[in-house]
Design a protein that fits this description.
nine-stranded antiparallel beta sheet; single chain; mainly beta
Length: 179
């Protein structure tokens, strides 16, 4: 009986390690969009990231966590994604969202460059009234491993306007570094 328990314990540890090694990139924290990134030639410059324009109003996000596996499986947990301007301040704007992961070198002025785009279900998921959402899906196409210069955008389905961006988890990328 002791041998059986030892074997089961070792097998469960081995499966945990395999799961941890399957991680491609993680994000811990989020940044809500500010539609304007600055002023150029006396006009506002849109905050375009990897070719994706911003939503028309500013947004805030209370919390964002995302894990992407090497097989393209993505889990995103977002909290409090709400409009922070205009007459619809503090609401979800009736929006649906999806995840867009970009890997590779960006171009100039917010263009895609040589980066590749990988998306969750294009139908998206609805934001709850308080701005919470969950995405459990597989990215298509499957992202490359490694995913260089990762950027995660939470965007609208269809024409894609981004509302929030994930902050890469540097602790995950540098396990010896303290927070």
């Amino acid at each position: 009986m002791k041998k059986l328990l030892l074997v089961l314990s070792v097998m469960s540890l081995a499966s945990f390690r395999a799961t941890a090694d399957d991680s491609l990139v993680n994000f811990d924290g989020g940044i809500g969009v500010d539609p304007v990134s600055g002023i150029t030639s006396n006009a506002p410059a849109l905050n375009v990231v990897r070719g994706i324009p911003p939503g028309g109003f500013p947004w805030v996000i209370k919390r964002l966590r995302a894990d992407v596996q090497v097989d393209g499986q993505i889990h995103v947990d977002g909290r409090g994604l709400l409009l922070s301007g205009g007459n619809v301040l503090g609401t979800n704007g009736g929006q649906k969202v999806m995840a867009l992961l970009f890997c590779g070198t960006p171009g100039a002025n917010g263009s895609l460059g040589t980066a590749t785009a990988h998306s969750s279900d294009p139908a998206g998921v609805p934001l709850e009234m308080n701005g919470d959402f969950r995405i459990d899906d597989f990215l298509t196409p499957t992202p490359p491993a490694p995913c260089e210069n990762p950027v995660l955008l939470i965007a609208t389905p269809g024409v894609h306007h981004w509302f929030a961006a994930g902050i890469p988890d540097l602790q995950e990328a540098n396990p010896g570094r303290e927070r």
